[in-house]
Design brief:
This protein is α/β, with parallel strands linked by helices. The chain is about 30% helix and about 25% strand. The strands form three sheets. Strands 4, 14, 15, 16, 17, 18, 19, 20 and 21 form a nine-stranded mixed beta sheet that branches.
Length: about 450
């Protein structure tokens, strides 16, 4: 397993993250356990900010909180000075409860409800990313009712198909997200927005997909979006203030992955911007990394349980977690690497398929994973689980969702408590007709 961030093998032969021995973490907090390398998260944010500062035009970095959203994470983002992208009232509420400045929050979503929009307007967030005509109408009505002006970006489907899994392509023409560019639908949206006295159209947004390993797709996106900006300037005299190119920057999950550096992503985008706006005023450029900031910073710890050998076929190794704490392998066929954290110096001499504990044949975390011969009670560490694991976790089979700890400089802080059995049934109700009656004989 590749060691990311502050991870290392200590003198006891244990995996250590943020100066904390993972064996000790498992004993203190239990397993499954999400471990987040706080220093690595901060370093990734700072790398994006530093790259942006090298540009000759305004360049803003926003954290896409759908990757991993907790009160503590929102505090980190605030301290490092990024904008915050939210996609639901839950993410917005989390940010506001963490005292994240509302004027640095913007709100995505392809089907925002009136209640969600109302909450965001009342909080006075920075902007809405508007996805469709219904939302334009809704925001106009709510803004009139509240006697406010709402800043918006229009989301565009630019017709760029990034080289990634079909489920996480979002920029192609046939997408549930955004106004279509190819058919001219976006121009109708611009016209409707400009006719509204309550909507302030600041610019445009797009997002072409996730886990993208080349800069070419982003450069093509910049070219297409800049053409839209120029067209709107000519046709509507619209001065675009913000152009958001989205996120989707790839990370290393396994050996075959070859992501480029943060600096190269930003440089590539900036170069395309300079070329596309040559001789014209450049709008403020935004990008929204999520996975690139937290993905490699996360490690999930599991306790190894039963094993099953099928002679000549496969060796199964079962752990006390699975698709309830990491849905990505079942959903996207995502690949991961792992090590036995309490015997991290031992060389792998066996091949195991790591199975989750859910009652599903598809609950497999890693196929054909090289490990040393395992024992019941060993500690398995799966790397690069910081993004889209906790945020996708569930109570399927009535399993409890894991705890989350931040580790830094030898200190481990609990930022999300492990759910209790009582938490599982806290919202359950038994109707009167199903309650047991007490009979007296």
């Amino acid at each position: 397993m590749y060691l990311h961030g502050t991870s290392r093998i200590n003198h006891q032969g244990h995996l250590e993250i943020g100066g904390c021995d993972t064996v000790d973490l498992a004993k203190e907090f239990g397993t499954p356990l999400y471990v987040m390398d706080e220093q690595f998260v901060r370093d990734q944010m700072r790398a994006f900010l530093h790259a942006a500062e090298q540009c000759t035009f305004p360049f803003q970095i926003a954290y896409a909180s759908k990757a991993f959203s907790t009160l503590a994470m929102c505090r980190l983002v605030d301290e490092e000075g990024l904008l915050l992208d939210v996609v639901s009232e839950g993410e917005l509420y989390t940010a506001l409860k963490a005292d994240f400045p509302a004027d640095r929050i913007y709100f995505h979503g392809n089907n925002k409800t009136a209640a969600e929009c109302s909450l965001a307007i009342d909080a006075k967030i920075r902007a809405f990313v508007v996805d469709n005509f219904a939302e334009l109408t809704l925001l106009q009505q709510l803004a009139e009712k509240k006697d406010q002006t709402v800043s918006i970006l229009l989301r565009v489907a630019p017709g760029v198909e990034a080289h990634t899994h079909a489920y996480i392509q979002t920029g192609q023409q046939d997408s549930k997200f955004g106004f279509d560019l190819a058919s001219g639908q976006i121009m109708d949206a611009v016209k409707q927005a400009l006719q509204s006295s309550r909507l302030e159209l600041e610019g445009f947004h797009c997002h072409i997909g996730s886990q993208i390993f080349e800069v070419d797709a982003f450069q093509l996106t910049v070219k297409k979006m800049s053409q839209l900006v120029h067209q709107c300037q000519e046709q509507f005299s619209l001065q675009t203030k913000v152009l958001n190119i989205g996120g989707g920057f790839g990370i290393r999950y396994e050996k075959s992955d070859e992501p480029i550096s943060i600096e190269d992503y930003v440089k590539g985008i900036a170069s395309a911007v300079q070329k596309s706006f040559q001789g014209k005023e450049i709008p403020e450029i935004w990008i929204e990394p999520g996975r690139k900031i937290v993905g490699e910073a996360g490690t999930t710890l599991y306790t190894i349980g039963s094993t099953k050998e099928i002679p000549g076929v496969r060796n199964y190794l079962s752990v006390d977690g699975g698709m309830t704490d990491n849905l990505r392998p079942a959903l996207y066929d995502a690949k991961y690497e792992a090590m036995v954290a309490n015997r991290a110096n031992e060389k792998p001499n066996q091949i195991y398929t790591i199975a989750g504990h859910c009652c599903e044949s598809g609950d497999i975390l890693i196929w054909d994973c090289p490990l040393p011969a395992v024992k019941i009670g060993d500690l398995l560490a799966v790397s690069c689980t910081g993004a889209y694991t906790y945020s996708m976790s569930s109570n399927y089979n009535r399993f409890r969702r894991p705890a989350v700890v931040f580790v830094r400089d030898g200190q481990a802080d609990l930022v999300v408590e492990r759910e209790s059995l009582d938490d599982l049934i806290a919202k359950d109700r038994i109707p009167a007709r199903l309650k047991k009656s007490t009979s007296i004989y």
